[in-house]
Amino acid sequence: MLLKSNIMLYFILFIAFLGLIFGVLLRKYTLEEIKQGRYYLFILSKLTLFFILIAVVYYSPISLASIIAFVIGFLSVYLIKRIYFYLGLTLFLSFLINNNLILIISSLIFIYGLTKGSYIAQNKEILNSFVLFMLPFLLYFFSQAFFYSHLISWLSAGALVKFLISKDL
């Protein structure tokens, strides 16, 4: 049973990240339409980030430590400037927090990937995003991550707020 759940976990990870690759393919074949709809893609990307943020905050308890984690997450964007690290962190935490949250977060990351991928012009950025997306899953090997999952979720929420209010995608 454990092997089956691990295979499902990797499948969900792959499908969630696949949105970015489909977005790049969408750009390649519909470049003219992407240029015309750039504003609407920007709005869609901000909306999906907002819904991811709402889902994370809804399932996370609030305390003084969580507010501090939120501020640290907000400021950590200045160190790690790629959003896919924080999306991977959010998806990892959804595996720890709630089974219903896994489907919501992975679907929203897929939709965000479609919009983000339509802005990507270099294939190197896809590989960088993939590595950063998978990096938070190394926390799985540390047993302490399970105990501090609510703080880590507030950290990722702070980072998502920073990306949400930024003017770029």
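(ticket continues) Second input and output from the same batch:
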Amino acid sequence: MYLCNPSVVPEKFTHITGGAVTLNKHVIIGSGTVILPKVTIGEGSAVGALSLVNKSLDPWGIFFGCPVKRIKNRSRHLLKLEAELNERIAQTNNCEPNKPQYLTLPSTGEQASKVRIRAVAL
């Protein structure tokens, strides 16, 4: 049941649709953007502020509007920078890329805990 003014409206009359919203890796969403249910935003997509996303978006695009429209393609140079950063992290930590590493945290009188970290993004 949902309240609408002083009366109560049964659910079958509200027509509310729910569903998952999936944001893939390297997605940017501008402030005030509304994303409707059952939508997937593809990897690397950017959505401008105050946009309405009412359908799933293709990867590596720049979108804007109400409803959103593809403005242009987004550069994939970010992927090269990410790979370089992950390689640098792996070299700094003397570990293999994509292999989980363990970091021992200082204890506060209790047994030190181990936290699983990755040298590269998943």
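Agent notes: Residues 3 and 32 are 25 Å apart (CA to CA). The chain has two domains: 2-73, 77-117. Closing as not reproducible unless the customer responds.
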